Amino acid sequence: MAAPEHTSDGHFVVVNGRRWRATDPEIPPDPAARLRSLLMAARRDVGAALRADDAEAERDARARVQLAKVALGERGTPWWEQTASERRQRWQDGLDALEGRDAGKTGP
After folding, report:
1. Which domain holds residue 64?
2. Can you say how many angstroms the Cα of residue 87 is from the centroid of all Cα atoms in its chain?
3. Average pLDDT over residues 90-101
4. DSSP state of 81
5. What is the spatial distance between Cα 56 and Cα 69, in angstroms, rounded to a whole number?
6. SS3 content of the chain, % helix, strand, coil (to 5)
7. Among the listed residues 51, 49, 69, the one whose alpha carbon sits nearest the alpha carbon of residue 59
8. 79-88 pLDDT, tens per residue?
9. Is residue 77 part of a domain?
10. pTM reported for the whole predicted model
């Protein structure tokens, strides 16, 4: 599979003709990797909750997906409209919230 194309301004990736907001390129590699890992875990948990017909677990998992996407800059205020300190605060707050949630998590 080919890497997705970016728009000329770098704000979006284009996949199968559809634009998606790009991840904030200023997030350092380690926090970005941790956020992506937490995002994928939350997405897996959405699927598990749907298969288990567990509405509460689904709501929790979808909330974690939202937190991760906002922290990565893919949702919420566009990262290119934020100052460097706002961008850092956004991803750090998201990481803190997600790692705190996962620390207390006992199952899907």
Report:
1. 26-103
2. 14
3. 93
4. G
5. 20
6. 60, 10, 30
7. 49
8. 999 999 999 9
9. yes
10. 0.87
Distances in whole angstroms, Cα of residue 78 to Cα of each of 9, 47, 56, 60, 93: 13, 28, 30, 24, 16
In a domain, 92, yes or no: yes
DSSP 1-48: -PPPEE-TTSSEEEETTEEEEPPPTTS-HHHHHHHHHHHHHHHHHHHH
Residue 3 binned pLDDT confidence (cut-offs 50, 70, 90): confident
- Looking at this protein, which amino acid is placed at residue 19? R
pLDDT at residue 2 is higher than 90: no
Residue 31 vs residues 28, 47, 81, 84: alpha-carbon distances, Å: 6, 25, 21, 15
Residue 18 covered by a domain: no
